[in-house]
């Protein structure tokens, strides 16, 4: 009897010891990111994603592309009817999802001043990439060409492509191109690629050069840039251990070259220098594309920002998501060689004009000084005046409860297209 009791006590002590050791190891594993912490975290994220988006992945409902309506009035609920009239003389392109999924999953729509849809480009992602399903990628970057073709990138996909007015590929370059696309005025496009930037020929899609943050920018300028760029790292346990970067340490979401016709407004830079946005560092910087040297940079006050733009008056405007605040802002800064910049808020969401996108989003300063805003996570496009007045508002409605994620809206003047409004002739 005593022997049996002792055995049971010994077994209990052994099991409790294993539990204590497992708990202690689990705590250290989570702290130090040891096995199996990364695997458990990945499994949790995967299960959560499957539970939320299984209808999307089986082609039943595009849940990955739907959001609660933006521009909501907290007292009366969102007004989801278009209001006002677009002020500038031209067209607005809006990238998003096709309501007729039998034609194509993604679509880019063209609207006139009165808000009428006058053309649409079907986007057949399955013709660009055979490895990813169209419903699991996000049409994000969009550049429009004078001949009526488009150049597009896709988050979570593996392609950048130029398509004609019928949606047929003119060229495709497979790879991790994402977020934004900008023309440099010299026949090239500039776009984020993995943890860096790529320059492509806009006519052929040929890759001309690439700039990698880890390989080219971190060691540039005598290594002085490492302190700025390697903030998101884990402290090594010993002198022999290498610095380990946290996942997605930079999240570059925009790359805009300084065009020659705007270079005089920025005497501290040169035509071809590239303006980068690194969301995870709350950093925008202007970089020499050949050496990776940062010529100018500024942290905040923007938080998780997107889409910094060179402006003709020598300022840079920034889409400040202000994640967590409930009110996205457009900020303005004038770079200087002395580092005495002052940041001004030129527009912010308010009770009168609600505007908030906790992630994604774009803006464009229009010829008359108004601002075209893409409220991505509200599924809404709006135009506001420099005084903060709402000029035009267009929710991208999917059904009675949801709007479509709207990744980019772009204004082009009336005479932009070489042959007038694009058309797709029957083939």
Automatic annotation (TrEMBL):
Keywords: Membrane, Transmembrane, Transmembrane helix. It holds the Pfam family Arylsulfotran_2. The chain crosses the membrane at residues 12-31. The keyword Membrane applies. It comes from the Bacteria. Residues 61-84 are annotated as: Disordered. InterPro entries: Arylsulfate_ST, ASST-like. PANTHER family: ASST-DOMAIN-CONTAINING PROTEIN, PQQ ENZYME REPEAT PROTEIN-RELATED. This is Aryl sulfotransferase. It comes from Halomonas binhaiensis.
């Amino acid at each position: 009897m005593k022997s049996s009791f002792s055995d049971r006590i010994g077994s209990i002590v052994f099991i409790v010891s294993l539990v204590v050791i497992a708990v202690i190891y689990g705590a250290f594993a989570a702290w130090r990111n040891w096995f199996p912490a990364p695997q458990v975290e990945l499994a949790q994220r995967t299960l959560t994603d499957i539970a939320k988006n299984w209808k999307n992945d089986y082609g039943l409902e595009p849940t990955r592309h739907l959001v609660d309506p933006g521009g909501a009035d907290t007292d009366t609920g969102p007004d989801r009817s278009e209001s006002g009239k677009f002020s500038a003389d031209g067209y607005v392109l809006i990238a998003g999802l096709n309501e007729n999924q039998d034609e194509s999953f993604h679509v880019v729509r063209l609207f006139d001043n009165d808000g009428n849809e006058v053309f649409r480009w079907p986007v057949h992602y399955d013709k660009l990439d055979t490895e990813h399903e169209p419903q699991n990628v996000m049409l994000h970057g969009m550049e429009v060409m004078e001949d009526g073709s488009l150049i597009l990138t896709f988050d979570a996909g593996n392609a950048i492509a130029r398509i004609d007015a019928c949606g047929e590929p003119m060229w495709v370059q497979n790879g991790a191109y994402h977020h934004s696309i900008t023309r440099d005025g010299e026949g090239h496009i500039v776009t984020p690629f993995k943890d860096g930037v790529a320059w492509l020929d806009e006519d052929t899609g040929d890759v001309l050069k690439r700039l990698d943050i880890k390989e080219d920018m971190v060691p540039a300028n005598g290594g002085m840039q490492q302190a700025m760029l390697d903030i998101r790292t884990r402290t090594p346990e010993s002198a022999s251990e290498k610095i380990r970067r946290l996942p997605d340490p930079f999240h570059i979401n925009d790359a805009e070259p300084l065009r020659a016709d705007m270079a005089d407004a920025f005497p501290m830079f040169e035509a071809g220098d590239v303006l980068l946005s690194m969301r995870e560092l709350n950093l925008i910087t202007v970089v020499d594309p050949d050496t990776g040297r940062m010529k100018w940079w500024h942290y905040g006050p923007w938080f998780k920002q997107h889409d910094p733009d060179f402006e003709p008056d020598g300022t840079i405007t920034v889409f400040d998501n202000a994640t967590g605040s409930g009110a996205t802002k457009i900020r303005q800064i004038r770079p200087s060689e002395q580092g005495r910049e002052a940041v001004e808020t030129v527009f912010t969401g308010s009770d009168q004009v609600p505007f908030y996108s906790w992630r994604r989003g774009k803006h464009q300063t229009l010829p008359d000084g108004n601002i075209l805003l893409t409220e991505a996570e509200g599924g809404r496009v709006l135009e506001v005046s420099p005084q903060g007045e709402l000029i035009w508002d267009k929710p991208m409605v999917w059904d009675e409860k949801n709007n479509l994620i709207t990744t980019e809206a772009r204004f082009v003047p009336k005479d932009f297209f070489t042959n007038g409004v694009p058309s797709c002739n029957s083939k």
